[in-house]
Amino acid sequence: MQPESYDLVVIGGGPAGISGANTASIFGKRVALVEKLREIGGAGINTGTIPSKTLRETALALSGVRSRKLFGVDLSLRREATVADFMRHEKNVATRERRRREEQLRTYNVETFHAAATFVDPNTVRVGPDKLLRGDKILIATGSSPVRPAEFPFEHPHVHDSDEILEIGSLPKSLAVVGAGVIGAEYACTFAALGVAVHLIDGRDALLGFLDREISENIQRAMIAAGVHFVWKEKVTRCDAPPVGNIRLTLTSGATLMVSDVLVAAGRQSNTGDLNLAAAGLTPGKRGLIKVDAQCRTDVPHIFAAGDVIGAPALAATGMEQARMAMCVACEVDYKDVIAPILPTGIYTIPEASMAGESEDSLKSKGIDYVVGRARYMDNPRGQIIGDESGLLKLIFARDDMRLLGVHVVGEQATELVHIGLVAMMSGSGAELFNRTCLNYPTLGDLYKYATYEAILKRDGLVAGERK
Predict the structure, then answer these.
(1) Among 136, 104, 95, which Cα is nearest to 6's?
(2) pLDDT score recorded for residue 222
(3) Biggest alpha carbon–alpha carbon distance for the chain
(4) Could you give the domains of the chain?
């Protein structure tokens, strides 16, 4: 077989792979994208990011959570709702986004192949049994898959990983979520909103420890109020799943837990096992991770990697940005040559949360003096309109020049609201910017003004106009 030559071969058709392929094609390169599954989209569109977030919104609507807060009326449909009812919207949204991405690839003349890819040599990829593609540059963006610990019988219809949980046939009566990371916490909230009795099990003793402590404690209180039962400092040592009846989980303490379904959210591993990386001159690390430099270049200079396959932060947004940046470098286009220095994190729990920049703990560890300003949704008319009584915007400024160092939000639209602070930090701005800016009223954006005022008053030793 004679290989067909391309300027770029992309392995993996998820968010990072699609973004990388489109970017290089826009720059005039001949691009091939190889996706082993029948449909493009990867975990971001098909099994993870978009489906789980859409399911969350559907759960909020079907459970009547928002309507009860606003009107004091239970409009819940969950007693009559079927799995098909709350999955219908998720499937529609995922399908529309997948079709949009397919149209982009066609518009930019990216040639797409649906077959498994393996390296033959550092520049050549075998696609399926009878096709070879040669790339001057190669981008690996094969994503990740859930880790499946051996103690769980995943062949059982009621033992799920975080991909297949979206394919459940009936709503669980009770659910044990093993792992209180982002994925576990998000699904715990979603199923609790649908009236499922949820137990969240983790060997640690705190929720989402990478978040600012005040924010994570706010989420945990809300989850407890929603009925989530936390089981801390415990691991599952045994899972007994009979053909009929409840599943028994045995914990490290010897305690047992009986539930109808189990969701294992024990982390993810890179999809590199079938790529024959050795033929490309690459050696994967722990859980299949590919090592890259700041420009997403591997140890083989013409091979790049982006997205979940290179590890943290392993978010769809960061994977897409990594791929765009890597292709600017690969194509020698000077639009960007480094990833953004400040990356946002969005957590779609109930309530949702988001952050960018430093936390109080990180600044304390660095010995940086700071001042905090807070503004609460309950004191904001838009917060009252939408019925969010516990939402919070927290801004952290450098005390000397009042530059914004960190923004932390918990509550409705947190993942949108954080972007105002993110852009301010990217531009080196802070309290002066928010003080001088006029924001629409009534909006959640106006919280920035009042959080800034509080921080200025604290810096100047004033509280409610009185000097302390």
Answers:
(1) 136
(2) 94
(3) 82
(4) 4-144+269-330 (3.50.50.60), 159-266 (3.50.50.60), 351-467 (3.30.390.30)
